[in-house]
Amino acid sequence: MSHPSVEKIKLDSRNLRGTLLPGLADAITGSLSFEDQRLIKFHGSYQQDDRDLRDERRRQKLEPAHQFMIRIRAPGGVFTPQQWLQLDAIATTYTNHSLRITTRQTFQFHGVIKRELKATMQAINAAALDTISACGDVNRNVLGSSNPLQSRLHAQVHDWAQRLSEAFLPKTRAYHEIWLDGEKLADSGEEADPLYGKAYLPRKFKMAVAVPPLNDVDVFANDFGLIAIIDDGGHLAGFNVAIGGGMGATHGDAKTYPRIGNVIGFVAPEQVLAITEAAITVQRDFGDREERKHARFKYTIDDLGLDVVVAKMEERAGFKLQPAREFRFDHNGDRFGWSEGEDGRTHLTLRIPAGRITDTEAAPQLSGLREIAKVHVGEFRLTCNQNLIIAGVPAGQRERIDALVREYALDTHARASGLRLNAIACVALPTCALAMAEAERYLPDLLDKVEVLQAKHDLLDAPIHLRISGCPNGCSRPYLGEIALVGKAPGRYNLMLGADHRGQRLNTLHRENIDETTILSELDALFARYAHERMTNQHFGDFLVAANIISPPPVTPKSGIAIEVIP
User: Fold this and answer.
1) pLDDT > 90: what percent of the chain?
2) pTM
């Protein structure tokens, strides 16, 4: 049976309502209709199933073990201790007893069954949070630099992440009607949305705000990015604007590819919302609505031409962009351990492997963070590298926090290799429908084996960025990893090499469709050369390029940053 296109589903959805209400009430199945599975994404949820159980359930003539992932909208990734405790309660009541930090600086829950979906959404709302536009063909969760060292600037950047998120939310009341039992007005399903219209965007749209010298949001991986520019007095002068980043691709389809954003100019703070809306509406009006795999903003830019898109943005914004200003990124990772902010408060960055916070016999981390939330008086900040900052700790409370961190084995950063500190993985199997290979579940075993090779070559302290993705869609931003594995089939991956440590250069395919034995053999040989031939302080990805082991993608308007960045 053929299904309607996603574009038709959106147009016929009565502004994202569809048949979600009766579908949720249908107790015969744990699933939603094909159309509602597409619409529920706009409400912050994906229907999934446990792929580990598929074959057995099929043999028993049962439908798949349907469940739902729910993603929080949390621009800038900041939560209060009370919100943490409420999210913890949701995780232990309705989900698989874990919180997962995503690479978009928020939490997502896994394992929610359909009959508890509405109660879970209402519990999220009771925590003064929501899931609106966390998924779907709209502006997604807006990223903001997590670096608390620059507290004054960070507060401004966090405010911009909030403002951008709020400014570009859909205007439909469907979310409140369906999940929060909001009043249905006479025009329910017909309310106007001047930004998105009835068809919304061709595909998802991602934004990030970075504060040099730290590119912890991987700003160039986003459709639209702002790079904070600081004046001589230490104040925010405005932002450089970058457009056209995106990680998604499809194996064997040359029309799809990862891309890093082009820096197109500078705007003053009062111009930010206008230029952002201009970018969104250009994508709305000119993006590909026929082929979803070719519908991201990066393809619109490459099809029309960068200069054409910039001219259209300037016309719609009502002003010309100023020339881009100089900036410098040092790296795109996180700084672990304690650091001190400008106001005298301290901040502790913890490594959370693959972002998964759960209780195991060796490390009851979910319980430990629950105890910390009970006494913490600051904030919890999530990073885009799946890590956690216990932020704003007064000097007198630091000893108590340290004791809890040790008691619940949350101090893994203190004994981790440089590779382990910089490793990211997507969820992949068993819940992601797109996964072709393991990622999150494979990461611990992979790290153990690669670290053996590093120890052999005295490289355990080398801060190498490793990223693993179960498919080429790139949720773990694998194409910006110095080493990356992109899933092709169970146990087989493309080995990508040679991105830089600042998020400003894509990596390159080195070996295709290889198994673990071949991956480890390749890395062993490369580590041997790196250990003996590298220059002082030379990063692994830079070494691979300098030694002509891999050829980097050409830096052109199609493939990357279009201005000279201060090295």
Assistant:
1) 90
2) 0.95
